[in-house]
Design brief:
Elements (H helix, E strand, L loop, with lengths): L1 H25 L14 E7 L2 E8 L6 E5 L12 H5 L4 E5 L19 H14 L5 E5 L3 H11 L4 E6 L14 H8 L3 H10 L2 H9 L10 H11 L4 H11 L1 H17 L3 E6 L7 H4 L2 H4 L3 E6 L5 H20 L3
Parallel strand pairs: 3-4, 3-5, 5-6, 6-7, 7-8
Antiparallel strand pairs: 1-2, 2-4
């Protein structure tokens, strides 16, 4: 009996040993696993006595990407992209004055121009210690970011352009109401633009041109509308609509920057955007030699429907360019 038990014991030990080595070899989980999650920090810094909110993730020793949002969004538009990049990049996304969680002083307290927004973001980069960075620009992010690029070309490592315009042919029919306002800022055109600041206009910016509107998380446009509905914010947005015309005067300067400095550029453009159509994407090829170009079958806020695709393009592009 003892001999039989001994034989069974060693038989089981051998099986256990083989199984144990198999577990190690196959890397099969044998218990609870620890899932590494991205740590995103949410901070504010003082710029011109304003609280400037920003999201940050990743190792600051890795390549930095400064994410600059559009209208009527905030750094919230990058909420899904940040964790997809943070293992490989240092990502920083501020909210401009008047947007998101940043201070929103009234128009009689703060000069809402694109020059001034860029000045604040420039100061922000210095306060948080960004010495070199790549720019991700979308919508308003382009006129803000390109002002930084022209002022500090030595800091710019690359451009990621997602429906961010730098060419006059890039203003689509969605801009018609703003163009009318530039010609006549009277009651009729002002009233029309105030209507655009309602939830219907905000939702339209998110769903127009998408493959499927049901792909768009309503939290995105509902969150934006929360800030647009703050008392006095309509006046802020009208000031910026009015000042946007000054960006067109800067287009030749930005295009000259492209031609002279030739930053590596990744274009990821929602081709069905009613505000910045393909006509605004194509001219980048004229001025930039080191360019990778992708048209996506989606709309203005391409990250909402194709965020994973864009993240993949960014990772592959930076690998290819060997940006460190």
């Amino acid at each position: 009996m003892k001999q039989k038990l001994k034989k069974v014991f060693w038989h089981r030990m051998v099986l256990l040993g083989v199984f144990g080595w198999a577990v190690l070899w196959l890397d099969v989980p044998t218990g609870a696993q620890t899932v590494k999650q991205t740590v995103i920090t949410y901070k504010t810094v003082k710029i011109e006595n304003l609280d400037i909110f920003y999201r940050e993730a990743g190792d600051p020793t890795k390549p930095t990407i400064l994410l600059l949002h559009g209208f009527p969004a905030s750094s919230h538009m990058f909420r899904n992209l940040i964790p997809q990049l943070a293992d490989k990049f240092h990502v920083v996304a501020p909210d401009y004055p008047g947007f998101g969680y940043s201070s929103a002083p009234g128009v009689d307290e703060f000069d809402y121009t694109f020059d001034h927004l860029a000045k604040v973001v420039d100061a922000f980069t210095q306060v948080v210690g960004l010495k070199k960075y790549s720019l991700y620009v979308q919508d308003y992010g382009a006129p803000v970011g390109y002002r930084l690029a022209v002022k500090h070309p030595e800091r710019i490592q690359a451009l990621i352009v997602q429906n961010g315009n730098a060419y006059e042919e890039g203003l689509g029919p969605g801009f018609d109401a703003i163009k009318a306002y530039w010609k006549d800022p009277g009651d009729i055109n002002t009233t029309q633009l105030r209507g655009f600041l309602k939830i219907e206009g905000t939702k339209y910016q998110y769903v127009a041109g998408t493959r499927n509107p049901h792909h768009i998380n309503p939290d995105a446009y509902t969150f934006d509308q929360l800030w647009l509905d703050r008392p006095g914010n309509d006046a802020i947005q009208l000031k910026l609509f009015w000042d946007y015309r000054t960006n067109l005067l800067r287009y030749p300067e930005w295009q000259a920057f492209f031609r002279k400095h030739q930053p590596p550029t990744l274009v990821v453009w929602g081709k069905n955007d009613p505000f910045f159509p393909i006509a605004g994407a194509e001219p980048y090829k004229r001025d930039l030699k080191n360019i990778e170009f992708h048209l996506l079958d989606t709309g203005h806020f391409a990250l909402e429907e194709d965020g994973e695709v864009i993240a993949g393009y960014i990772r592959a592009f930076f690998d290819q360019q060997k940006i460190k």
